[in-house]
Amino acid sequence: MEKTEDSSSRGIIELDPNESGRITKLIEKPDSDKLTQSRLASVVFYCLRKDTLPRVDEYLSSQSHFRLEENSFGRFVDWLIQNGTPIYGMKIPTRFQLIGHVGLSDYQKWTQYFQARDQDIKNKVPINCRAYARVGLMGNPSDGFNGKTISLSIKNFWAEATIFESPRLNLIPHPLNDPTVFGSLADLHCISKKEGYMGGLRLVQATCKKFYEYCDANGIALPRFSGFY
Q: pLDDT tens-digit profile of 55-78?
C-alpha cells in the first residue's frame, strides 16, 4: 500500500515469516492500526480449489449470528485460514491498487503514470553491463560452500550483456563470440576447434531460468507478455 493510504479501505493480510507467501491472517478493513502492522493489501482476485467451494455453506452456518452483509468473501477466506486451509498470496503489479475506496482522481493518476512509463520505455537507452575476467591466485570460488579466494580482475577481457525492454524474450547470440553464421565450412571448423561448442547463450538462459524460479518461490508475479533482448 502507499504510505498515505488508509488501511481501513482494504483487506489486510499477514504472512508467515517462515514460509514464503503463506497467509496467516486476513483482516477485513481494519478500523484500527492496533489490529495489525501489516501494509500488505488483499485484492479481490482469489483462486480456489473446487473442493474448497462446498465449505461456503459450512462457513455461513457457523457465522449465523452475523448479519448477511457482514459475511464478506474476505471474512470467508480468513475463516478458511483459521481453520487450517493453506492460502497463499502472490505479489501483483502496482496497477491493482485501483481496488477499494478509489475515485476518478485515482484512475487519472495511474493513467498518467503508465502513459509516462510507456513514453519512458520508448526513449530508454539499452542497459549495457560488463563482467571482467579474473585470474585466481588462491582458493576455489565455485565450490558452492562460501570458499574464500584471492583473485585479480583483468580489465581488457570481459563478458558484456545488453538488454532493453521488448514484447518478447529473445536471446541474441554475439556475432563474434557465439556465431551462428559462418563464411565457410572451414571458418566453422576453425572457430569450433578454437572456441568449442558451448557459448554464452546457455549461461544467459540458465540465468533467466533461475530468475523465474526465484520470483515463483517468493510470490513475485512477472508480466505475462513482456521480456527483453
A: 888 888 887 666 666 667 778 888
Torsion of CA 170, 171, 175, 177, to 10 degrees: 170
- Domain range for 42 is 7-92
3-state secondary structure of 144: coil
Q: What residues does 25 pair with on adjacent strands?
A: 14
For the full predicted model, state whether its pTM sits above 0.70: no
DSSP letter (8 states) at residue 91: B
Helices (H), 68-218: 73-82, 104-123, 185-195, 201-217
| Domain end residue (candidates: 92, 112, 135) | 92
Q: Looking at 54, 69, 92, which one is the last position of a domain? A: 92
Long-range contacts of 184-187 (CB under 8 A, 24+ apart): none
Is 59 among the domain residues?
Answer: yes
Q: Grid coordinates representing 168?
A: 518478447
Separation between Cα atoms, residue 164 and residue 229, nearest integer Å: 6
Listed in sequence order, the residues at least 6 apart from 191 whose beta carbon sits closer than 8 Å to its beta carbon are 179, 182
- For the chain, how many structural domains are there in total? 2
